[in-house]
């Protein structure tokens, strides 16, 4: 294999961008494990006072990831996130204003391998969410197990991440004066196994829980499509029915999260590694679908709204695909 090295005369801004993204990939893949390791080292070193105080804190604070979290604008504004955004770069695009009288459930598609676009747009202060949607507070919902890791949970909550449990989404959408946006990555971990460049398969036909929550709380639904999300990494081929895919499906059922075997480039060379490619991400926020609050929605009502959502998502994709390099004959595939 021929290794293509990065040139030595790379400008400082690009080096900073690469550093910002590499620490983010590290945080995603290993920081939680490191935090658990540090916690056990404190136990082994018998720092009992520190440990008891932190465990007491965990006990008192256990529900916070499900009750809106604890965002800290200072962390969301760290300069590292500016470099992170500019690496790809990530752009947020608005198609219509969102009235802050309501709460919104934003369905984010596709998951991609590491959901970089959702993180950049909804967990940092650098893609202009605040300016585009003044008065709206975004919460990105991720799998609950992240919040069981000591220390890591505090960091995750500080950028505005919250749990994806039903209770948590319901909490965000219950603010009577409106102004909250719950961002849900509908396809979930399963979709990350299909995050190959060019793939437009969305796992959505059997996912209706988010529709039900929106109906119950009267939250307006907004489809969001992130062009470029699937182009950031390559993945070892894993078509449905292959040995690898069967193992990945079993692991996902056991662990609750997916294990995509992805690779792209490295820090100092472009031939292999876990760094994403520098590819633009364009996250387009669609038009809101008004939802009338229904305390006990029937299956028909859920199915009907789900269908409307699918059509609206399809329309958003069709209207924008030409701008972001998707060939005319390619369309979304719902599965
Ligand atoms: C977030 O960004 C806006 C402008 O984009 C800036 O005015 C504001 O000070 C930033 N917030 C913090 C806490 O730095
Ligand atoms: C996308 O993924 C689906 C599901 O694994 C697969 O059937 C399809 O062939 C893939 N399409 C492309 C263009 O990779």
TrEMBL record:
<protein>
    <recommendedName>
        <fullName>Acyltransferase</fullName>
        <ecNumber>2.3.1.-</ecNumber>
    </recommendedName>
</protein>
<dbReference type="InterPro" id="IPR007130">
    <property type="entry name" value="DAGAT"/>
</dbReference>
<dbReference type="GO" id="GO:0019432">
    <property type="term" value="P:triglyceride biosynthetic process"/>
</dbReference>
<keyword id="KW-0812">Transmembrane</keyword>
<keyword id="KW-0256">Endoplasmic reticulum</keyword>
<dbReference type="GO" id="GO:0005789">
    <property type="term" value="C:endoplasmic reticulum membrane"/>
</dbReference>
<dbReference type="GO" id="GO:0006651">
    <property type="term" value="P:diacylglycerol biosynthetic process"/>
</dbReference>
<comment type="similarity">
    <text>Belongs to the diacylglycerol acyltransferase family.</text>
</comment>
<keyword id="KW-0444">Lipid biosynthesis</keyword>
<keyword id="KW-1133">Transmembrane helix</keyword>
<dbReference type="GO" id="GO:0006071">
    <property type="term" value="P:glycerol metabolic process"/>
</dbReference>
<keyword id="KW-0808">Transferase</keyword>
<keyword id="KW-0472">Membrane</keyword>
<comment type="pathway">
    <text>Glycerolipid metabolism; triacylglycerol biosynthesis.</text>
</comment>
<comment type="pathway">
    <text>Lipid metabolism.</text>
</comment>
<keyword id="KW-0319">Glycerol metabolism</keyword>
<feature type="transmembrane region" description="Helical">
    <location>
        <begin position="24"/>
        <end position="57"/>
    </location>
</feature>
<keyword id="KW-0443">Lipid metabolism</keyword>
<dbReference type="GO" id="GO:0004144">
    <property type="term" value="F:diacylglycerol O-acyltransferase activity"/>
</dbReference>
<dbReference type="Pfam" id="PF03982">
    <property type="entry name" value="DAGAT"/>
</dbReference>
<keyword id="KW-0012">Acyltransferase</keyword>
<keyword id="KW-0325">Glycoprotein</keyword>
<dbReference type="GO" id="GO:0003846">
    <property type="term" value="F:2-acylglycerol O-acyltransferase activity"/>
</dbReference>
